[in-house]
Design goal:
45% of the residues lie in helices and 9% in strands. With 367 residues, it is α/β, with parallel strands linked by helices.
């Protein structure tokens, strides 16, 4: 079995692809060429989305953004293993998951541009919107799973979070509840080695994060998170178990955040560039591309062609989002928090709307 460079652990890690894209034939999932190509296209899309989003933020056209470059295999491998009937609860970095589920890029750009429109995801996609408070989405996912269990709805509910979230109370409360009530959850930890500036080494004394599941009475598994096939297989097995009433699973995906934590972060202040370069050599997109070239699913130059096409579509989506923002009224920020707006907020709204009218040509209200 191609194990790669994984942390020492008593829980056997799963890896299928080596760094040259050679697969362990005994573990290789049975996926069609069309499925493999779609997964690759989804990985390219999320990397191109990162490039576009970071560029917009640096130009002052978008708010703070959390890139997922280097973590594409976790997001796309797991999303591909879920069905349309399953639910997902993302954190703030799951661009790949949401795009794979069918969320429009325009909607995602709107979220990072600070509009409520970015939180309005079609219910049929069974995807919660981005969740910024660390680990709180774990509780949401467990609640959805408990509801599904009451209704005898045979689905899986996936929650995504980082290594830093495993030190939050919400993580422990959620996993304890899931273990006690055997909820149909798949907990997917993207262990990207850094919780902002806190390294994994001082996050916990546990040898792995996966083994934390054992304390709650269910299975934990460690996976090479830069191996999209390994993530797909581990998630498929965990989701199947959840749908069949076998309870929750914690999957720790060993990966690396190649870029900044968010666009307000400077990782050069706390980590060594040599470490970054060592992980860059394990790039999940490069590894999967080599595998697909070996299999004849891709031809040379196809990645570049895909990236160019996707880049153009994302450019159009970002421009569409900016046009929507230009036509929104500042009144939007007061609309969604309270059923009955408190008096102090009414005063603030009146003040802002008055300023907006004075700024518009001819005194016309904006929006």
């Amino acid at each position: 079995m191609a194990s790669g460079n994984l942390e020492k652990t008593a829980i056997p890690p799963l890896a299928i692809l080596d760094l040259e894209g050679r697969a362990d034939a005994q573990l290789e999932p049975k996926l069609s060429s069309a499925q493999l190509k779609q997964m690759f296209e989804d990985m390219v899309r999320v990397r191109e989305f990162d490039t576009r989003a970071v560029g917009l933020q640096r130009q002052g056209r978008m708010g703070t953004y959390a890139p997922s470059t280097g973590q594409e295999a976790v997001q796309i491998g797991s999303a591909a293993a879920l069905t349309a009937g399953d639910w997902v609860a993302p954190s703030f970095r799951e661009q790949g998951v949401l795009l794979s589920r069918g969320v429009k890029p325009t909607t995602m750009f709107l979220f990072f541009m600070g509009t409520e429109e970015g939180n309005r995801l079609p219910r049929k996609l069974r995807s919660l919107p981005y969740c910024v408070p660390c680990a709180s989405q774990v509780l949401h996912a467990v609640g959805i799973a408990m509801a599904a269990k009451f209704k005898k709805d045979p689905i899986a509910v996936a929650a995504y979070f980082g290594d830093g979230a495993t030190s939050e109370g919400d993580f422990h409360e959620g996993l304890n509840f899931a273990g006690v009530y055997q909820t149909p959850n798949v907990f997917i930890c993207q262990n990207n080695q850094w919780a902002i500036s806190t390294p994994r080494a001082i996050q916990t004394r546990s040898e792995t994060l996966a083994e934390k599941a054992l304390a709650y009475g269910f299975s934990g598994r460690q996976v090479d998170g830069n191996d999209v096939l390994a993530v797909y297989r581990a998630t498929s097995e965990a989701a199947k178990r959840a749908r069949e009433g076998g309870g929750p699973t914690l999957i720790e995906c060993l990966t690396y955040r190649l870029g900044v934590h968010t666009t307000s972060d400077d990782p050069s202040r706390y980590r060594d560039e040599a470490e970054v370069q060592a992980w860059r050599a394990k790039d999940p997109l490069d590894r999967f591309e080599k595998y697909l070239l070996h299999k004849g699913v891709l031809v040379a130059g196809e990645r570049e062609r895909l990236a160019a096409e996707i880049g153009e579509r994302l450019k159009a989506a970002a421009e569409e989002a900016e046009e929507i923002c230009r036509n929104l009224s500042p009144d939007e920020m007061f609309t969604y928090m309270y059923a009955d707006i408190p008096e102090f907020l009414k005063l603030q709204r009146e003040d802002i709307l008055a300023q907006t009218v004075s700024l518009e040509p001819g005194g016309r209200a904006h929006g």
